[in-house]
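We include this case.
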Amino acid sequence: MNLKQRFLTQSMMTLVGTIIITGCVGFAYVFFYNLLNKSPISVSMGETAIVVMEDDNIIYNNEEFSNLQIKEMLMNISVKNNYYDNGDTNYSINAENFTTSNGDKYMIITLNPVINTDDNYRSLIAFVFITFLIVFVVASTVVQKQNMKNIIIPITNLTKETEKLRTGELETAITDHGYGEVRELGRAVEQLRLQLKNSIYYQQKYDENRKFLISSISHDLKTPVTSIRGYIDGVLDGVADTDEKKKYYLSKAVKKTKLIDTMIEDLLLYSKLDLNQMPFEKEKVNIVKYMESCIEDSSAEFERENKNIILENELSDVYFVIIDSEKFKRVIQNILDNAKRNIEKGFGQLKIILRETNSSVILEFKDNGAGISKDDLPYVFDRFYKADTARAVEGSSGLGLAIAKQIVEVLGGRIWAISEIGTGASIIISLKKLNERK
């Protein structure tokens, strides 16, 4: 029941209840009045007086009217005035004549005292009106008290809480007391408060992220830019005085520009992922064939640096996963590049193990590099983390694993790392599996 229906129902119930109570009190008033006065107000009649006359002689007079009074009665009857006043009593007169078989003539005069009911009815109406007014005021007071408790006070409190929101105080929870729409309004304002608080929190977080990104990328860009300037100055100043040195200096400058390009590309990608502005096109993929294709694309680079990459398939069946092939390839490539930079030439090895759980396909990228300390392990997926080994290696933007984490989580998976110093590191990805054959 909404507030409009509630107010209408309250008004109708107050009116109907007042009428019923007033009617009951009115009937009680009439009943007890009749009982106490032994005279029905509704009939307005009392004890009848009778006078019997034979010819002009009075033979019966139960009220002992005088002859003069009886003559006045007869005079009123003759002029067709059917009322007679006797002091404070007003009578209605009725006369009947009849003759006996003996020829005797009789007249029977009946006088019914007429009670003046105007005063009685006026008092009854006044009593009923006062009763109606009192009952209506009491009922209205009760209803207004309930409305005050369930509507007015909650709205007043809500107004105060809303004023706090306007002044920026967002920590105090807004209660949802009240009735119907008032309660819903309180809940809506509380949701607004939470959303406003969250939006301010995320705005502050985005501002901090932006400042951190600007600071970090500025710091990381400074080194390659300084190197590029140094190599170019070396050529212009004649330090590189042979063609071989010039070629060497220029090749180094080109290499540094590629690093800057990689950093900028990773930064733009990370920003789009962080702001949920990167569209994903998910599809069903055979995980084994997909990983074989990714390894084939990177195997030449591993061989060129005399490092090994191995795929071990421990899956018991053909499994499919739902991923965005292009973006997940970026995840694989970032992990492979990070591992390749952290394993030694000659005996460095990256083993990719595919295994399963009841609901997931597990991809483990296990290398035999130096490993990651326990203090640094929880932060390897943070952007620009200072102890990230990828940052100490030339050609890294410091965002590879952070980008990988964002993409995996958007695809509904999980990614984490395990490692100990001296035993290598493992990056593990869990994806929901589909046990379907083509």
In short: The chain has a mean pLDDT of 80. The longest strand covers residues 89-99. The domain at 283-434 is CATH 3.30.565.10 (Heat Shock Protein 90). Residues 181-236 form the longest helix (56 residues).
